[in-house]
Amino acid sequence: MTLQSMTGFARTAGQDEFFAWTWEARSVNARGLDVRCRVPNGYEAVEQAVRAAAAKMFQRGNITIGVSVERIDQASARFRINRDLLDQVQALRAELGDTIADTPPTIDGLLSIRGMLEPVDATEDEDKRAARESAMIVSGQDMLTALSVARSGEGQRLDDIMAGHLDILADLTQEAANNAATQPEAIRERLAALIGELLGAEPKLPEERLAQEVAVLVGKADIREELDRLAVHVAAVRELLEDGVAVGRRLDFLCQELNREANTLCSKSADVDLTRIGLAMKATIEQFREQVQNVE
Phi then psi for 98, rounded to 5 degrees? Predict the structure, then answer.
């Protein structure tokens, strides 16, 4: 399956005998799915249908959908004054009294108030209106499909980038495993030196305390367990990327696990080269995590 990003844009358009419409959708990152839809008054059924289609098609992302509708023959359009709004404006002016200018409002000023002019639609056959709404819904669904394609295209680019980060992380893990400081001989030498220091300590450590200290030293000296877990997590991430279906949250969790192992490796390291490798791992994991934030 193709990995999907949460970022995308799409536009579709359509028309019938009297009206033309244009759909637009923008999608950005979000923790969950948030669909916002803006349609002109009277097209609530269209909004509900397109909103429901978006909820089925996507699982994450902040998606803003809008549609503009215009009459094709503007010359034949008729308008009327919104009397209720005009009465409210006049009442407000009378209430404010001397606190505003004495100059009466102009026609141009009144007509510029949003909503003062209302379109007067000629009586329309219900079947024609229903047909237009159905066509708008189909066009809106086509727009959502185009948005999904755009998000998939962005997801493919993310997939390529993240695969590169995983390759780097796998190489660093192998480099750490090959580091002389992780080999059994080096570990034994370091432990022998540390145990010698403990045995020569004054006052003498009790045998029980000595055993505890040795156990702690052994745990801190061997990082092979962390390297094994890093390899397992990298393999799990590759599987999720191949799956590609709404894997963003699971990838984010695995980023936390990868970072935890890299932190432990750095804290255990007593070798400059190994510390360098651990820091490079942390930087690569952070770059990977930044890309994961865009994945659905």
Answer: -75, -5
